[in-house]
Amino acid sequence: MTRATRLGMIALFLFASGCASTPKSTSVGTETYGTAGDYVPNPQPQSTTVSNNTGTTSTTTGTTTTTTTGTVSTITTPTTTTGTTTSTNQVVTMDFGDAEQYLGTPTDMPSDQPDHYVNLPEFRQNNADVNQDASLARGWTGKGSTIAIIDSGIDVDHVEFNSAGKIVYQLDRTGTGIQDSIGHGSHVASIAAGEMDGSGTMGIAPDANLAVMKITDNWSASSREAIRAMKKAREDGIDITVYNLSANTNYSGDYKDSITYQGNGIYTSDHIHYGGSNYYNLETPNGFANQLAGTDSVLVVSAGNGSHGYVQNPATFASATNSDGTLMLDGRMIIAGNWNTSTQMVEGAGAGHVCKDWNGVTCNDPYRTSDFYLLAPGMGVTGANHDGTYRTMSGSSQAAPVITGAVAVMHQMWPYMQGSDIVKVLLATGDKQLPNYAEETHGQGLLDLEAATQPYGDIGISYTGRTGTTVPVSGNLSIAGGDASGSLSSISVVDDLDRDYRIDASGFSQTYDLIPLYHLDHQAGNAWSSKFVGGTQEIQGMHFASYETTRTPEGHSFTNMSVGVDSTMFGDTPSDWTHSIVMTQSEHSPFVSFNGMFGQVNHTTTYEINTLYQPNDWYAQAGAMHSLTDMHSGLVQEVTPITSVYAVAGWSRRDINLYTGIKPMIVNGELELKLPTSVDYEGNMHYTNTSIELDSDAIGFVGAQYTIGRFLDAHSLKMNGVLDSNNRYNVGAHYEFTF
């Protein structure tokens, strides 16, 4: 057995924290969870600080209160359009504030104001740096999630962990008991899930449960034990949301000497054993990959504290791929880099990538380390100690549980989300507004819970499931009878990361009299449906009108037309009764109008029968119409045939026409909606079919016409005025030419 092989089997870790009692690894090939002597962290306010060449530690027996404010970074909430009482859309800002709803169940919180949490004595710098106040104000505390801490155990009696049922699983691989004797595991656990109890510190996911897996009783451990702990938890049926592994390999000097920087964040190694496609210590990602397989668990690993541009094992495994190019860990590992808020710099390992497939010019690896590298505050973090007290520690060990807590928060919000999707959310919403930001150094930026708990990118409506193609939340729905607003008060939308939200879309719908006032300009015998196209000309009992309109932005033309006949064309004997049949095809419908996410009305075909009784100057007319709506479906799936009736009575003598009547009133018709209303715990979107009965009220009207003059028996100028029972009125004049 070669020396390199023996080292690959041993694979020792050291914790990635700065601590006065942390030994530096000196043996070749030993893995360290961060070498603590690479930097001297800044002391915390109100803390007694002791510095030496292995890092910084601070122990307190009282409550240390620090009031800090971090840089707030938000994403832009998309703007959308809403319906109005006219056909013109107005751009408004969608409210995703207090009215926002989610699939997951929020925790009942004392306040929905972020400032409330900023002012809590336990809200510290690391909480502020990632905008945790925003997630707390929305009720996201990690409740229902289980965080596995693979570390040195836990102080089981510490106030940060003593609520009933907090620790749901204990596994001791050391034979020394679950109690932490060095403080590292307790510290990490409190950063991830320490209680929100008004004192001490507060975890990023204060309501998350803990699964404690003790793999060491000192400052080093083996990767084999970490993997075995994960395996045992699976065998015991523990549903782990996220594993936290705050530990890394300490690279030997000869390995670091073998590393060459090739530019653009790419490094290569020509080490005789660990170079090329091999990993340091001849480790492989297989052990971790096997334990993640078949689960949705996420693994958060510290980047390491080495003062070089690339991460340390096992963080290197995040970008490892199978022979077919797929990720061995299924995209479910996040590498936690250490962000120094004071200096605004990365401490320890940066996001550089040690290439495994280098052709001498370019790196052919499908993924880069920076694709999975996310920063979190890890300097001068106060957390639980092993003896009931608190201490301050620094390192990527402290950065990792911040991200681990964020995974638990995401899981509470969207329990159906796969682990790989949760990783994508946190990476995609990282704050890149950092000084001198470079992906090869800062990866995907600084964890931002404000952005991660808000819609990402554009929100939209999907007709075909949560992951289907979406259309913008825009458009309007106007109907002449019935009310769709109640059905639209809570519908599901999705963002660019396929996460669902509920919105109140009732403002996009209105019940409104769609019949324009100029349709009330009536003369005895006029077919009402012909008014949809501006009226017709009559010649010997035949009625006809036709014109084209150009639709924008499509630019297509549409032929509006009306044709009909009446009973006068069938005989010469005058009669007090005239019966008409008319067919009208119009671009617009007087009963329903919608566009955008609701679909689109293409045109309406209306069949009308009417009867006119006119024994003298007095007349009465009644009609019934049957309207068929041609449409492209959206949220509106169907408009059934609409039946409407109207009546007009009046007195007319040459230059004067006085009349009153009832506008077309819908007596039968329905609007069929298919609305996304919920997403189940498997991530399937469910739709609700809703029928809106179109039953408009009777709207009366009166009108008058006066012909000022006639010229050559074909030309006339008319004054007219109308008023309906909704107090809408119109006064005008028009020129008329009669064939």
Task: Give the N-to-C terminal Cα separation.
Answer: 109 Å
Low-confidence stretches: 1-11, 19-102
- Return the structural class: mainly beta
Radius of gyration (CA) equals 36 Å
- The level of helicity is 10-25%
- Note the overall shape: elongated
Biggest sheet details:
11 strands, antiparallel
Q: Biggest sheet, strands in spatial order?
A: 28-29-30-31-33-34-36-37-40-41-42
**DSSP summary: helix tally:** 12
Kindly report the average pLDDT value. Answer: 85
Q: How many DSSP-defined strands?
A: 42
Percent of residues in beta strands? 25-35%
Structure explained in plain terms:
With 739 residues, the protein is mainly beta. It contains twelve helices and 42 strands. The strands form ten sheets. Strands 28-29-30-31-33-34-36-37-40-41-42 form an eleven-stranded antiparallel sheet, with no helix packed on it. Strands 7, 8, 9, 11, 15, 16, 17 and 19 form an eight-stranded mixed sheet that branches. It has a four-stranded antiparallel sheet with strand order 2-3-21-20. A hairpin with a 3-residue loop joins strand 40 (700-711) and strand 41 (715-724). Helix 5 (184-193) packs parallel to helix 9 (396-413) and helix 9 packs across helix 10. The radius of gyration is 36 Å and the shape is elongated. The termini are far apart.
List the helices and strands and how they pair.
Elements: H1 3-10, E1 12-15, E2 50-52, E3 55-60, E4 79-82, E5 90-93, E6 101-102, H2 114-118, H3 125-129, H4 132-137, E7 146-151, E8 167-172, H5 184-193, E9 209-214, E10 220-222, H6 223-235, E11 242-245, E12 247-248, H7 253-257, E13 259-263, E14 266-269, H8 286-292, E15 298-302, E16 333-340, E17 345-347, E18 353-354, E19 373-377, E20 381-384, E21 390-393, H9 396-413, H10 419-428, H11 439-442, H12 449-452, E22 460-462, E23 470-472, E24 477-479, E25 491-494, E26 500-503, E27 509-511, E28 537-539, E29 542-550, E30 557-566, E31 577-586, E32 592-594, E33 599-613, E34 618-633, E35 636-639, E36 642-653, E37 656-668, E38 670-679, E39 685-693, E40 700-711, E41 715-724, E42 729-737
Parallel strand pairs: 7-9, 7-11, 8-9, 11-15, 14-18, 15-16, 16-19, 24-27
Antiparallel strand pairs: 1-10, 1-12, 2-3, 3-21, 4-5, 6-26, 13-14, 16-17, 20-21, 22-23, 24-32, 25-26, 28-29, 29-30, 30-31, 31-33, 33-34, 34-36, 35-38, 36-37, 37-40, 38-39, 40-41, 41-42
